[in-house]
Backbone:
């Protein structure tokens, strides 16, 4: 066995660095049990799953600054403006490679044990679990970078495979692994603790494998629909994650280790994004007064009020329909999940409040002198990312953690359960499959409503579900909730405002934005838009990578363009002449490979570029992504 283990390549920086281990302990360190005489498959699985929770170092870089930014589930000027950091990418590449190394080692150790007869009744099942988990890690890696090796960690320098080859391999592995699981087998209690997700409940691993297969099959829906349908229909018929009891989730814990929360760094504000805000406002038709105690009602503004207009202090060079306005109070109607996910500025009585308490912020004139002092407490706003230029320099409101809602404390204290696959995703995948005409065993409307209900249950909001599902009111992007309400919104809607400089009241026609990435902007309220809108909201905050992938695949939901008060050097395609358009080239598609890969394996790097079919750049689409 040592001979086998000594041949395993450990991918660090590039996929070519092979580590020869003189002793097993170098590969199988576990302070609780493992040593050179006790080589156990479950230790490698445990190390891989725990490692992939991401310690605070890599979590800040990958989960927060890359995935949450790219998915518009945060407002961060990183990937959305074409900016990336080679050091961050190298860190993530190294970490995910190590997690994959542990998963591959688990498989190889299990195979060796079965060859020698040194097995337990559950050794084969553990190998299938490792195969399923390896697919998740491969999907995470390929959805970030694109082409990756399939045959890594086998003692030779691996070749890079195309994204299509990687996806076909992952789907095949999931099918084979779930089929091979023996559900009559169980593991002893002292082994269950080495699976932080399911405690080696193999029935749940089977459901997870098929749910992952549904997710990956749907990723191919735009480029390989026949393969997508075949894989999806087979997986959904076997069984999938239907309840939170079956969800793939891992308990976080305070500290500085892989189980620390992925969103736990206090200096990451994690603002409400303009994208989420435009989806939340008005969606579901449930009033703020129904959701919050009477003490909040004094701050609620009328439904037809958009706020105070400050054209010299708030950007207007974006297609965000709320651009140029400051809402000096709370929205009349808003998706109930908004107040659960984000804290109202200045609401210090809320135990979930997190943010600055100095809520008076200044607007300055051109001479940097005080123009006005604005009270931001009990207001609800979100600012477009990008360049605000001189307007931003004169505005202390738009980027302050004391004036913009930021993510609640619950997800920052490392006491939550990190979710990798929730039941709502299964239902939204089924709903999308059903409207494509695939055989799913459930009609689209039922699956859609089940997905919304599962999300509301997760947030403890089931008392609002019925009213919400019946609502025909549009949000700021022109989408409603009710499945049967597919009437398109008018081109504009009339809103009242107050001029921030003169105090004069006025009215303005606010457009529902045209999302040209989807059906050339002609449709805002069809069934697919509803499904992806609800899926996007439900995936917050745990699954930003999936939210980003859906947008890359479909162009849904509507993402506003970054502001371009001044040019964005890494996003030259977007400028003041076209900021009202939606174009694929305005939105990030992937992470460039870190320089460590380019420098350590020129041949492999060239293979990757050949498969990528474009430059090693942020805006080069992956094979399965929407391209125009």
Residues:
């Amino acid at each position: 066995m040592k001979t086998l283990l000594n041949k395993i390549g450990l991918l660090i920086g590039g996929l070519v660095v092979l580590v020869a281990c003189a002793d097993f302990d170098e590969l199988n360190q576990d302070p609780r049990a493992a040593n050179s005489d006790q080589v156990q498959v479950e230790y490698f699985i445990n190390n891989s799953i725990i490692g992939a929770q991401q310690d605070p170092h890599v979590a800040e870089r990958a989960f927060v600054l890359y995935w949450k930014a790219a998915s518009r589930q945060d407002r961060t000027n990183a990937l959305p403006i074409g900016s990336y950091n080679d050091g961050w990418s190298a860190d993530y590449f190294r970490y995910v490679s190590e997690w994959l190394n542990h998963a591959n080692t688990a498989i190889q150790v299990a195979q060796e044990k079965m060859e020698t007869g040194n097995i337990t009744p559950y050794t084969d099942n553990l190998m299938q679990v490792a195969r399923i988990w390896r697919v998740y890690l491969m999907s995470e890696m390929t959805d970030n970078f694109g082409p990756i090796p399939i045959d890594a960690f086998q003692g030779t320098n691996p070749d890079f495979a195309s994204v299509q080859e990687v996806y076909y391999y992952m789907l095949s592995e999931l099918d084979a692994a779930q089929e091979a699981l023996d559900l009559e087998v169980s593991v002893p209690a002292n082994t269950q603790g080495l699976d932080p997700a399911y405690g080696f409940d193999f029935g749940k691993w089977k459901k997870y494998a098929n749910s992952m297969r549904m997710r990956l099959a749907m990723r191919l829906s735009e480029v390989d629909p026949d393969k997508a349908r075949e894989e999806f229909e087979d997986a959904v018929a076997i069984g999938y994650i239907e309840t939170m009891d079956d969800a793939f989730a891992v308990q976080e814990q305070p500290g500085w280790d892989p189980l620390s929360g992925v969103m736990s760094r206090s200096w990451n504000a994690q603002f409400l994004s303009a994208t989420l805000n435009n989806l939340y406002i008005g969606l579901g038709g449930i009033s703020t007064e129904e959701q919050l105690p009477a003490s909040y009602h004094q701050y609620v503004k009328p439904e037809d009020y958009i706020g105070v207009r400050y054209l010299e202090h708030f950007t207007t060079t974006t297609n965000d329909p709320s651009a140029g306005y400051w809402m000096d109070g709370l929205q009349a109607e808003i998706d109930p999940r908004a107040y659960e996910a984000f804290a109202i500025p200045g609401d210090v009585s809320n135990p979930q409040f997190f943010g600055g308490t100095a809520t008076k912020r200044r607007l300055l004139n051109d001479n940097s002198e005080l123009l006005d002092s604005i009270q931001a407490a009990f207001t609800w706003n979100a600012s477009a990312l990008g360049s605000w230029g001189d307007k931003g320099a004169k505005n202390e409101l738009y980027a302050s953690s004391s004036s913009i809602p930021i993510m609640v404390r619950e997800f920052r204290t490392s006491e939550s359960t990190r979710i990798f696959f929730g039941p709502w995703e299964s239902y939204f995948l089924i709903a999308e499959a059903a409207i494509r005409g695939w055989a799913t065993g459930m009609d689209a409307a039922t699956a859609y409503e089940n997905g919304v209900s599962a999300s509301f249950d997760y947030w403890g909001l089931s008392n609002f579900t019925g009213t919400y599902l019946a609502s025909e009111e549009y949000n700021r992007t022109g989408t409603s909730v009710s499945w049967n309400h597919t009437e398109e919104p008018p081109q504009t809607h009339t809103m009242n405002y107050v001029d921030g400089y003169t105090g004069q009241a006025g009215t303005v026609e606010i457009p529902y934005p045209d999302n040209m990435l989807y059906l050339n902007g002609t449709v805002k309220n069809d069934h697919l838009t509803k499904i992806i809108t609800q899926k996007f909201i439900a995936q917050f905050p745990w699954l930003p990578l999936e939210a980003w992938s859906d947008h890359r695949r479909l162009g849904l939901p509507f993402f506003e363009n970054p502001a371009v008060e001044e040019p964005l050097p890494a996003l030259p395609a977007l400028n003041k002449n076209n900021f009202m358009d939606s174009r694929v080239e305005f939105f990030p598609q992937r992470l460039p490979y870190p320089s460590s890969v380019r420098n350590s394996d020129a041949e492999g790097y060239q293979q990757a570029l050949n498969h990528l079919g474009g430059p090693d750049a942020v805006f080069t689409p992956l094979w399965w992504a929407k391209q125009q």
User: Anything to note?
Assistant: The chain is about 35% helix and 10% strand.
